[in-house]
Amino acid sequence: MDGYAPTITPADDPATPAAEPQVRAARRRRFAHAGPPPAPARPKWQDGLRAARPFLLIVILPTLLVAGFQYLIAANQYQSEAHFIVRSAQPSGGTGGLGQMLGLTGAPSPAEAHSIGDYLLSHDAVAAVQWTMDLPAIFRRPEADPITRLDPAHPPPETLLKYYRRQVSVSLNTETGITDLSVRAFRPADARDLAETLLRLGETRVNAFNQRALANGLSVADAQLREAERGVTDAQRNLTGFRQGGRDIDPERTSTAQITLAANLQQQLAQARAQRDSMAGSVAPDSPQYVAIARQIRALEVQAAAAQGRLAGSAASIAPGLGAYESLRLRQEFAAKRYEAAAASLEAAREQALKQQLFVIRVVEPNLPSKALYPHRLKTVAIVFFGLLLSYAVGWLILAGVREHAG
């Protein structure tokens, strides 16, 4: 047998009109059992883009936005630096290195340096700078970008101080005692001028410290000196009044002369009595020579008694006045010595205060920057990118763990 040929009836032949309804019905049954036609396959790059969409939105897009701002919008900021040392005039045995190179003999003063740094970052410094420079105008230059410029144009003191502390930094190296002052601005000249102004303010504040310390150190000694001066004046006034009241310039000298006179009279009286006694055996009592010596003795006795009475023993004697004069004289000498001691104490206090005087030495003058140091564009973009990348990785690991636990 050569082959098998199926027998086609008129109903099965699609060419015949009688078979067309059956063919269409068969086709409908086949399509009904087969379901809808399959969708066309998508390209692989679309699937990859859909899978990477969270990474693009969370990491790449914010990084691109930050990079666009840093490189297209962010304004350049210039930094001027200055270095200075706060030292005292008191010698220090530990001075060496930089101190010897600069010819410094004073000791560093870390506490005062810290206080100067605090002052330069305080509202007092901002107010003092405002007298010579327009800080809002400096921090709102036309070249400044909207994010980093000072806002508003006329800020309240608290806002200005907060922005000022962002642009000005002060740091102290405790090992060397050098204080670093850094100032940022949108123009090189603004940064240098502001740094110079702050240095002058620091020097002015140190001078105020010196004046206050000098006044406090000398106040007690000066008060003692003024009191000693009043004591000397009162003692001299009392002594002068005593001299004028007694009409005796120097009662001590007068008493010395009176004592000498009384002693001379007593000596003359003793000599006259000795002469009379020697004449008693050889000369008659009524002889002219004996009578004369007797009269001389009586006169000397009267004079000696009067001289002795002027020294002591009567209200008119000079002894009470001499005692009062010596008391006033001792008070005057005591007041004078007290004045000398107070003057020496004041001088010693002044020398000690001068040894404790502070002064500012400029190690590095404020420079005029030629290159912008801020913003750190590449560093900022890198920090944002790696920070977002780390956050995305941590989030992906957490989500994967949750899905695995749920499955």
From TrEMBL:
The protein's organism comes out as Caulobacter sp. (strain K31)
From the record, give the transmembrane residue ranges: 55-74, 381-402
Keywords in alphabetical order: Membrane, Transmembrane, Transmembrane helix
Q: List the residue ranges of the region (Disordered).
A: 1-45
- Which PANTHER family does the record associate with it? FERRIC ENTEROBACTIN TRANSPORT PROTEIN FEPE (PTHR32309:SF13), TYROSINE-PROTEIN KINASE (PTHR32309)
Indicate, by first and last residue, each region the UniProt record lists as having compositional bias (Low complexity).
1-24
Keyword Transmembrane on this protein?
yes
Please list the GO terms describing molecular function.
Answer: protein tyrosine kinase activity
Stated name of the protein: Capsule polysaccharide export-like protein
Any GO CC annotation of this UniProt entry: plasma membrane
Transmembrane as UniProt keyword: yes
